[in-house]
Amino acid sequence: MIGDISKKKKLIKIIKPNSYDYVVNLAGYVDHSYKKKTINSHYNGCKNLSLLFLNSKIKKFVQIGSSLEYGKIRSPQIENKLNNQKTFSVYGNAKLQSTKFLLNLNKKFNFPTTILRLYLVYGPAQDTNRVVPITIFNAIKDNNFDCSNGTQLRDFLFIDDLIKAIIKTLNNKKVNGEIINIGTGKPIKIKDLIIKICDLVGLGKPEFGKISLRKDEIKRLYPKILKSKKLLNWKSNVSLEKGLATTIKYFKSYKD
C-alpha cells in the first residue's frame, strides 16, 4: 500500500484502522530544505496518522522522533516531557510538535504511543547523502575529499540495533506515553569516524578543515540511555567497528 500521510482525505480512503495492530511512523520528507514539505510530512502527517488510529483497537503507535528535538539542551541529553525547548531547525520543530501532540493524545485518551528519539542511524542501503556512506564512497575510490574540522561529537547507531529497539517497544505497555532515547551513549568525533572508515577501507584521503561548520552546527549531540535499558531492556550491541565493516561490505558490492 502506498500513500501520502500528509493528505488526510486520501489517507482515510486507503487505510482501515481496525485492520492493524501496530503502527511505526517512519514517514517524512528527507530533504529538510523544503520547509513546507518537511512540516507537512513530519508534523501534519503524524497528526493525520495518529488521529486515524485514535478510536481503533491499535496496540501501539511508535513515533520515530529525533535527537534534534532537544534543540539547545546540552548533551548528554535526558528524556523530558516539558518539551518547551527551542529547536534549531524546521525539521526538529516538526518532530517536537509531533511529540507534544502524541503525548497529549496519550494523556487525554490513553492513546498507546511511544516516542523513540533517535540519534544518527547508519547501515547498508542508507541514502548516500549522509556522512557514513559519503565517506565510504570516497574511501573506496581513494579520493581526496573535503571535510569540516570534524570536532563535532555524534552518536552513531547501527540499523540492526534500532530494529531490535522498535520490536521491544511494540508489546511493552509500560512505555506508553514515554519518550525514550535510542543511541549507543558512546559519542565519537566526526574526524575520528572518518579516519576509522578510511582505515577499514584502506584508502581515502580526507582533507579536514576545508568545509566550514554551519553557524547553527550542534557541537555535541549524544544521549543518556538509562531509560532504554530500564524500560525496554535494550542497549546497542553492534560495535561501531562491526557496524562500519558490514556497511562498507555492502557499499563495495553496491559499487560493483
Can you describe what's shown?
With 256 residues, the protein is of the alpha/beta class. The protein has one domain (8-255): 3-Layer(aba) Sandwich (Rossmann fold), CATH 3.40.50.720. Helix content is 40%, strand content 16%. The protein has helices spanning 8-14, 35-52, 90-109, 131-140, 159-170, 190-201, 226-232, 240-255, and strands spanning 22-25, 60-66, 113-118, 120-122, 144-146, 153-154, 156-158, 178-182, 188-189, 205-207, 220-221. The strands form four sheets. It has a four-stranded parallel β-sheet with strand order 1-2-3-8, with helices on both faces. The chain has a three-stranded mixed β-sheet with strand order 9-6-11. Strands 4-7 form a two-stranded parallel sheet. α3 links the parallel β2 (60-66) and β3. α2 (35-52) packs parallel to α3 (90-109) and α4 (131-140) packs across α8 (240-255). The protein is globular, with a radius of gyration of 19 Å. The mean pLDDT is 94.
Query: Overall 3D geometry?
Result: globular
Order of helices and strands: HEHEHEEHEEEHEEHEEHH
Number of helices: 8
Helix content: 25-40%
Pick out the low-confidence regions. none
Which descriptors apply to this entry?
globular, 256 residues, alpha/beta, three-stranded mixed sheet, 11 strands, Rossmann fold, four-stranded parallel sheet
Topology:
Layout: H1 8-14, E1 22-25, H2 35-52, E2 60-66, H3 90-109, E3 113-118, E4 120-122, H4 131-140, E5 144-146, E6 153-154, E7 156-158, H5 159-170, E8 178-182, E9 188-189, H6 190-201, E10 205-207, E11 220-221, H7 226-232, H8 240-255
Helix pairs in contact: 2-3, 4-6, 4-8, 6-8
